[in-house]
Amino acid sequence: MNLGGSIRINKFGVLIIAILLVFLVYYISTGKSRSSNYALNKNPNEVNLRKLLIGSIQAAQCGGFEVVEVSKSPDFNVHSKGKTKEGANDPVTDADFRSHCVMASGLHRIFPKLKIISEEDGGNKPCPDSKLFDLDPTVIHENSNVPDEIVGIEDVTVWIDPLDATQEYTENLFQYVTTMVCVAIKGVPTIGVIHNPFTKKTVWAWTNKAVSEPLSYIKRDEDVKHPVVIVSRSHSGDVTNLAKEVFGENLHIIPTGGTGYKVLQVLHNNATAYLHSTAIKKWDICAGNAILAAIGGKMTTQKNEDISYSDKDSFLNENGLLATAVENIHEMYIKKLIDHQKMSR
């Protein structure tokens, strides 16, 4: 039996394979640098808000990953930052710190001159080498027509809450936990991101430009015959009594944890309004303020004052809060609140 023979090589086929291999190697080797360069602006004193929106979404999601990872450990390393004015404990955990490092460091690497205010900025521990990220435009759904818009970097302030509802987190009430990023332009809340790390659901909005997909399909409920008011479970102050006095007997009150969670309930029509009567930090409320404004809602103090998120203003809002997803409802409720304030004097 003759097993011998010859193999003829198709030179053209070999050439095609070689060219394809060269392109594949080039794509793999340059993919990371192309992703990194996506964020770069020619002028470091300007920022593209579309790219900052993308970075804000990724920051919230990456911070959320750290929050979930710490939740798997037997010890959250809980410490107290002190007491609030109402005497409630103000805890902080390893999850707060790790999330802060990823979110703030990640955004600063891409936007070096960005002013970032984070709840955990005051910590004495330096951030270790964090798991940073490159901009990924796919975090914005395909149907969103999000424009490029360039603004001066000096007009931009970014507010970060690395772990909202820390008290509930320490109690394993993870449904209330969110990570949040807000972009304020000249003090006006403009871009908001709220991410739930445990459901991996992200809600975002850019005022007058675009909103995340679920928000665009929700029909707003303007029925206020039986108002549902959501309040804090751990920083309630006198808000429960206030709500009953202002909104009457048909009122239903839901006490929950986390400012981000409360805003999400308002956004999804599970609550008519979010009412808060004690002081509250601006990193807790900025993202929700921006998202509500983008969908036609409103958030103000209980004196009907707009809240400024400039880095030059106080980080604390001391005049209470009223937030609704429908501006008309806000106007009706705020009138009741102001009338009640006048009668109580």
UniProtKB/TrEMBL annotation:
- Keyword Hydrolase assigned to the entry: answer is yes
Provide the top EC class.
hydrolase
Q: What is its EC number?
A: 3.1.3.25
Which annotated residues bind Mg(2+)?
E119, D161, L163, D164, D284
InterPro entries reported for this sequence? CysQ/Inositol_MonoPase (IPR050725), Inositol_monophosphatase-like (IPR000760), Inositol_monophosphatase_CS (IPR020550)
Tell me the SUPFAM superfamilies matching this sequence.
Carbohydrate phosphatase (SSF56655)
- List UniProt keywords, sorted A-Z: Hydrolase, Magnesium, Membrane, Metal-binding, Transmembrane, Transmembrane helix
Q: What cofactor does this one take?
A: Mg(2+)
Give a GO molecular function annotation for the protein: 3'-nucleotidase activity
Protein localization: Membrane
How is the protein disposed in the membrane? Single-pass membrane protein
Pathway annotation: Polyol metabolism; myo-inositol biosynthesis; myo-inositol from D-glucose 6-phosphate: step 2/2
* Any one of the GO BP annotations: phosphatidylinositol phosphate biosynthetic process
Chemical reaction(s) catalysed = a myo-inositol phosphate + H2O = myo-inositol + phosphate
GO cellular component, as recorded: Golgi apparatus; membrane
Q: What family does this belong to?
A: Belongs to the inositol monophosphatase superfamily.
Q: What is this protein called?
A: Putative inositol monophosphatase 3
Species whose genome carries this gene: Aedes aegypti
Name of the gene encoding the protein in the UniProt record? 110677190
